[in-house]
Amino acid sequence: MPDTATTQTGIMDTTALPPMEYRRFGRTNESISVLTLGGMRFEQGWDAPRDYLPKAALDNCIDTTRRALACGINHIETAHGYVKSEHLYGAALKELGTPRSAYKMMTKGAPMTADDTRRLVEDQLKALRLDYVDFYGWHGINNQERLDAAVQSGGPVETLHRLREEGLVRHIGFSTHAPLDIILAAMRTGLFDFVNLHYYYFFQRNREAIRLAGELDMGVLIISPNDKGGQLWNPSPKLTSLCSPLTPVQFNGRFCLSHPEITTLTMGFHAPEHFPQNLAILNGGNYFTPEDEPVREKMDAQTARIPDYCTVCNECLPCPENINIPEVLRFRNMLEGYGMRSFGKYRYNMLQSKGHWFPGEFANRCTECGDCLPRCPEELNIPKLLFQTHARLYSPLRIWKGRITNWLEVAWLGVRNRLRGLSPR
């Protein structure tokens, strides 16, 4: 989509954009924009060291932040784990002279002890050049072990509450890539004001967590709806056709915001063209309109055309070989029904490399033991479907290319840092 909201001078024409919308972020009572400026994808943002800010990275952050604020986005999201991001925002907001009252800042971290928590938060505030953060999320409650570590007596979350009393943190939440039962357990501790989680049209497994957030009056931030929601910025022709006259980005964004419990969607705006694409989601607070509803009907009807459709009920788990069967078959649904091969390859080939962030073995590890078969309410031939999906999505070249690239980047950064240490100052 062309950047119709940018003038020939390169300055964004905010009068050409839909007005920003705001929602209450649960019991924090903070009013934040329904689109959040995410800080994960700035140019060179993942290169160590975290406090070295190349001009290209800083210029990218300054330009993006300026555009976001100009169109009414008042919520910024980052994390210690995003390497340079906190330092970039600290420098960019100072360069822009942005009043502290003009934005809410969310950052995240995963300290494992009380002492580490205090030390980390103080370091993050220094990087952000702030006296406090509005929202602090314990980053990655992805399994029972990490939940137990976060909420242990005298541990990280208890320390965050102490820091809140001291004014360094205003509201406490958590982010998660966990199975639903872990998410619900974390929410029910009563220790958190908000939750950052995955929920999209193509991933509705966490619907119960969305409902519970409404009951508990917790704010809800949806993680990466355009990327993890299906690489919707690079849609298949079939998906584009099914979503027409909306774009897939519009459709999925409006699907998410049609849930009143959901407060905001975090977006990796890191190029000018991302703004009109994502701002087109906005619809005056009315999701879905009668004009949009036929698109939802077309998308829903497509599932009936998928042979051996998996309802992603999770009854097939646990798998003795640690295959994430529902996730593999979800990729198969998207491939068969919506032509989403690119997304399937992207996500499937992350297995075995992301640990607790994205657990599971490749589907060819299936031994055809048959444990899952009697548990499947659809009576699917699960082993057969697993092998077929692996054959269609597995890309050893992609995996080795990624490993070699990572190795070269680490080696180069080591050399560069040593040379920088030897150079005159």
Short description:
By secondary structure, this protein is α/β, with parallel strands linked by helices.
Indicate the percent of residues in helices.
40-55%
Global shape: globular
Largest sheet: 8 strands, parallel, barrel
Strand ordering within the main sheet: 3-4-5-6-7-8-9-10
- Strand percentage, roughly? 5-15%
Tally of separate helices: 15
The total count of strands amounts to 10
Task: Name a few traits of the molecule.
425 residues, alpha/beta, 10 strands, globular, disordered N terminus
Write the layout of secondary structure elements.
Blueprint: E1 22-24, E2 31-33, E3 35-38, H1 55-70, E4 75-77, H2 85-96, E5 104-109, H3 114-128, E6 133-139, H4 144-151, H5 156-165, E7 169-175, H6 180-187, E8 194-197, H7 207-216, E9 219-222, H8 237-243, H9 248-257, E10 264-267, H10 274-279, H11 293-301, H12 325-338, H13 341-348, H14 382-393, H15 396-422
Parallel strand pairs: 3-4, 3-10, 4-5, 5-6, 6-7, 7-8, 8-9, 9-10
Antiparallel strand pairs: 1-2
What would your notes on this structure say?
With 425 residues, the chain is α/β, with parallel strands linked by helices. Helix content is 40%, strand content 11%. The radius of gyration is 22 Å and the shape is globular. 42% of the residues are buried.
